[in-house]
Write a structure and sequence with these properties.
The protein is α/β, with parallel strands linked by helices and 371 residues long. 50% of the residues lie in helices and 11% in strands. The protein contains 15 helices and eleven strands. A five-stranded parallel beta sheet has the order 4-5-10-3-11, sandwiched between helices. The protein has a two-stranded antiparallel ribbon with strand order 1-2. A two-stranded antiparallel ribbon has the order 6-7. It starts with a strand and ends in a 5-residue tail after the last helix.
């Protein structure tokens, strides 16, 4: 299992009790040795005594050495100064002890998920393609990247992908299923819900809504350093200007993650310290790639996808019905709805409509029967 240290700061180590015990024992031993020397003296009878003799006498005197209240107070102050200097040297002196404790898992070794081998990659990608064959262009791109990861004994890390295509064809559903098959944590961020990227990068302290970004929160929650982050509707992302004239854009927040040089030492606005976020895999979705800011497009592999046909929707419904153990009657009803949903322009139901019908059919078949 591969691991990595994601927080690029030293661990200040807040083991107060251990440090207090260490200083207490040191002071006791120091005083026992001094007391032993005073008792033995330096006359003609003690000139032949060695260090072992002093230690034996000091050990016998151990019960007679007690620390005063003043000694304990001085030790406490010394421990506080040591810990404060350790924290300042670590670069985390501006954080509270509670916040440092929360980040401590990232100071140690965080797990990175690896592909088992090339055969496992082939089987995983084949399962994904079987479920959603119309996403073949995206699936092939992932397959090549995972094959490269497996052959080089690397961890799972996909190149940034931008899936562009009509709404309702399953771009987000494909990304969700991919994370499930790869067994890596996933975080979904909807860029169309407003905001200027705070959900990605986090918010600086001083705001009432100050908090870390969702990618960092996902890593902290699962303690896995290479999750899959899905950003939906990136073509609808917003930008804004503050009262002071500062420009903020969703795309700017993303760029610091997609650019390898900045991702490897990315500074969190909330914690104000640096993390290695270069192992994250990113999938962006858009209905129209031409509306995505050019700097983002230049850092992604753009995959153009087409609208779904009735045949593809029926095939998806059939495969999912078999997985859900739906009856033939329920599947026939869903397929008839799909067939008759085609309008005069050739548009059919979306994938999410079909998924909703499948789950509704499961609920109806499993409901209790009243007699």
């Amino acid at each position: 299992m591969k691991t990595i240290k994601l927080l690029l700061s030293a661990d200040p180590n807040f083991e107060k009790d251990a440090l207090t015990r260490r200083l207490t024992e040191y002071l006791k031993n120091l005083r026992k040795t001094r007391l032993a020397k005073e008792l033995i003296g330096d006359d003609e009878h003690s000139v032949d005594l060695g260090g072992d003799d002093f230690e034996k006498v000091a050990t016998e005197l151990s019960d007679g050495v007690a620390l005063t209240w003043d000694d304990k107070w001085r030790i406490k102050k010394r421990v506080q100064r040591i810990l404060q200097r350790r924290t300042e040297a670590s670069g985390l002196g501006h954080l509270s002890e509670e916040e440092i404790q929360r980040l401590r898992p990232l100071m140690n070794e965080v797990r990175l998920v690896e592909p088992r081998d090339e055969h496992w990659v082939d089987e995983t990608v084949a399962a994904l393609h079987e479920e959603m064959p119309w996403m073949a262009a995206a699936t092939n791109e992932v397959w090549r990247a995972l094959r490269q990861n497996a052959s080089s004994k690397d961890t799972i890390r996909l190149p940034p992908l931008l899936l562009s295509g009509p709404p309702g064809i399953g771009k987000s559903a494909w990304a969700r299923r991919l994370s499930e098959l790869l067994e890596i944590p996933r975080c979904e961020i909807d860029a169309s819900l407003g905001g200027v990227g705070f959900s990605v990068a986090g918010t600086e302290r001083g705001w009432s809504s100050a908090q870390p970004g969702r990618p960092l929160e996902t890593i902290l929650q699962h303690r896995v350093g290479n999750p899959l982050i899905v950003v939906d509707e990136i073509c609808k992302a917003q930008s804004g200007t503050s009262d002071r004239g500062a420009h903020h854009a969703f795309s700017d927040s993303l760029l610091s993650f997609l650019e390898p040089a900045t991702a490897v030492a990315w500074e969190c606005p909330y914690y104000r310290t640096k993390f290695d976020m270069s192992h994250i895999s990113w999938i962006l979705t858009a209905n129209d790639a031409s509306r995505v800011p050019e700097p983002l497009v230049n850092r992604c592999t753009v995959i153009e996808l087409r609208a779904l046909t009735c045949k593809q929707l029926r095939g998806f419904a059939s495969r999912q019905a078999a997985r859900m153990e739906l009856s033939e009657a329920s599947l026939d009803a869903i397929e008839r709805v799909i067939e008759h949903s085609m309008d005069e322009r050739g548009h059919s139901l979306s994938l999410r409509n079909v998924i909703r019908m499948l789950h509704r059919a499961v609920a109806l078949e499993n409901r209790a029967t009243h007699h």
